[in-house]
Write a structure and sequence with these properties.
- It is an enzyme of class 2 (transferase).
- GO terms for molecular function: nicotinate-nucleotide diphosphorylase (carboxylating) activity.
- This is Probable nicotinate-nucleotide pyrophosphorylase [carboxylating].
- One of its GO terms (biological process) is NAD+ biosynthetic process.
- The chain is an alpha/beta fold.
- The chain folds into two domains: 124 residues, Aldehyde Oxidoreductase, domain 3 (Alpha-Beta Complex); 150 residues, Aldolase class I (TIM Barrel, Alpha-Beta Barrel), CATH 3.20.20.
- The protein contains eleven helices and twelve strands.
- Strands 6-11-10-9-8-7 form a six-stranded parallel sheet. Strands 3-5-1-12 form a four-stranded antiparallel sheet, with helices on one face.
- Helix 9 links the parallel strand 9 and strand 10.
């Protein structure tokens, strides 16, 4: 089960999004509910098949506007076909109409990410390789987008620069090499953060092995070289984890996983996901 982020983190985000949408007031809703604001029921439906992510967040968004009776008809993370009833909810007319767009936008966005992640994870479900996401996220939405990749079947890579130390190409260039970069890092790294090094060729892999790092990323390597590097790393230091990245898509992910890498990281489930079409209708 994927852990929901705490309310103390979520609520400021949701309040800001509602403020952005409502502005100085919901003109249409305010007019029709000024003298009569009855409790009404609404139904959410899928308009295409996909994995559902974000329903608990939608409930929290509506609850900031008024009391709501929230009755999900499916479990978070379920794969639903087209025209499936996701939930029924009852609230004041103003609460339902004012919160509709923000709530739907978020759930459609997160469900799109969860759906594409699911398709990637499904390709390697019978293999030990773990699919992981990246930091290529929408500014301000990382927490929720990474939640959606978990719902879809991926593991979260680091959330931020302070979660772990990843030495990338520009770090190596700036420090004068992998060995120098790692030496400088180790003198300042808090315990127990891990060190990962991005490599693009066999020479860099050898240097990373000699530096006894925790994870070696094989970045944009051809398939034969990935196989060779996995064998080399496991032979010289089986404690080092191996991650493949670059040129990962639905057509290539399985053959890359079959090389024996421990992790495959890709930004695609977030950066290439389309929103999943959903609707809310008063009944």
């Amino acid at each position: 089960m994927v852990m929901l982020p705490p309310n103390v983190v979520l609520e400021p985000l949701f309040r800001e999004w509602l403020r952005e949408d409502i502005g100085r007031g919901d003109r249409a809703t305010g007019a029709i509910t000024a003298n009569n604001n009855p409790v009404q029921e609404a139904v959410w439906m899928t308009k295409q098949a996909g994995v559902i992510a974000g329903l608990p967040f939608a409930e929290k968004i509506f609850s900031l506007l008024g009391k709501i009776d929230w009755q999900p008809q499916v479990t978070e993370g379920s794969f639903c076909e087209n025209q499936v009833k996701l939930l029924r909810c009852r609230a004041g007319t103003d609460t339902l109409l004012t919160g509709e767009r923000v709530a739907l936008n978020l759930v459609m966005h997160l469900s799109g990410i969860a759906t594409l992640t699911h398709h990637y994870a499904e390709k390697i479900a019978d293999l030990p390789t773990q699919l992981v996401d990246t930091r290529k996220t929408t500014p301000g939405l990382r927490l929720l987008e990474k939640y959606a990749t978990q719902v879809g079947g991926a593991m979260n890579h680091r959330f931020g620069l302070d979660d772990a130390a990843m030495i990338k190409e520009n770090h190596i260039q700036a420090a004068g090499g992998i060995t120098s970069a790692i030496a400088q890092l180790r003198s300042n790294l808090p315990y127990p953060l891990t060190i990962e090094v991005e490599t693009t060729n066999a020479t860099e892999v050898e240097e990373a092995i000699a530096s006894n790092v925790d994870i070696i990323m094989l970045d944009n390597m051809a398939l034969p070289l990935i196989r060779e590097m996995v064998d080399l790393i496991k032979k010289k230091n089986s404690a080092i984890k191996v991650e493949a990245s670059g040129n990962i898509n639905l057509n290539t992910i399985r053959e890359i996983a079959e090389t024996g890498v421990d992790y495959i990281s890709t930004s695609a489930p977030i950066t290439q996901a389309s929103w999943l079409d959903l609707s809310m209708t008063l009944v």
